[in-house]
């Protein structure tokens, strides 16, 4: 017997061109783990767990000791539950399909009779309940996701109204307490350099202590269309995990991590 469709008015996102991997799977979401992870009622092949690839929602401890819940984690989980719990979804792939935890890395779309495809990643970003978190081997639809994130941030929706998720200045002293965390940083590139094939974008006068973005030699070919060496003097927004290497540093592995700043910055 066909399960009745709940009457919930949702914004519908048009389905874009087919991803690199055109084959897909269907499954019913039985549990919401957090704002970017769900469990299926039945496993597909050997896994029930799906990571909504391309976004990062506020995190819950989920059994991790000494882990503090991120602000709005419960609200993000509830938003995804309202959108997807009990619904049949289509898994669509645009890159590596699984991570080291055997989770599916998929874009999810509602796949029920009478309902146009609702893209869950897009809706979570539109609501301000997640931010873009892309990978070198999973870049499909990132440009669309960044645009949705910018709109939510400009409106101060969800996480963008909380200082925990604020866009950071590149001042090294301000970034040091944030080492080891995922951050979005905005500032002007003071100088660029290419040394032994590795590209450096320096945001201060002293590369030994100031914030730097590094593009390793193996990843430089992916930036051929953007030429990061020409970013000197440009204002950019970069996202990634802050490391401590001659001052705070983010390693950029793919071009979507670096955005030219064309929108107004959220205070």
CATH topology of the largest domain: OB fold (Dihydrolipoamide Acetyltransferase, E2P)
Low-confidence stretches: 1-22
Mean pLDDT over the full residue set = 90
What is the count of helical runs? 4
Proper CATH architecture of the largest domain: Beta Barrel
State the assembly state of the protein chains.
single chain
- Supply the helix-strand structural class: alpha+beta
The percentage of residues in β strands lies in 25-35%
Give the fraction of residues assigned to helices: 10-25%
Any idea what the shape is?
globular
* Number of discrete domains: 2
**Helix and strand run:** EEEEHEEHEHHEEEEEEEE
Task: Find the count of extended strands (DSSP E, 2+ residues).
Answer: 15
Identify the CATH class of the largest domain: Mainly Beta
Largest sheet: 5 strands, mixed, barrel
Report the end-to-end length measured between terminal Cα atoms: 52 Å
Please characterize this protein's 3D structure:
The protein is of the alpha+beta class and 267 residues long. The chain has 2 domains: 141 residues, OB fold (Dihydrolipoamide Acetyltransferase, E2P), CATH 2.40.50.90; 94 residues, OB fold (Dihydrolipoamide Acetyltransferase, E2P), CATH 2.40.50.140. Helices cover 13% and strands 31% of the residues. It is built from 4 helices and 15 strands. The strands form 4 sheets. Strands 1-2-3-6-5 form a 5-stranded mixed β-barrel. It has a 5-stranded mixed β-sheet with strand order 9-10-11-14-13, with no helix packed on it. A hairpin with a 2-residue loop joins β1 and β2. α2 runs parallel beside α3. It is globular and about 55 Å long. It starts with 20 loop residues before the first strand and ends in a 7-residue tail after the last strand.
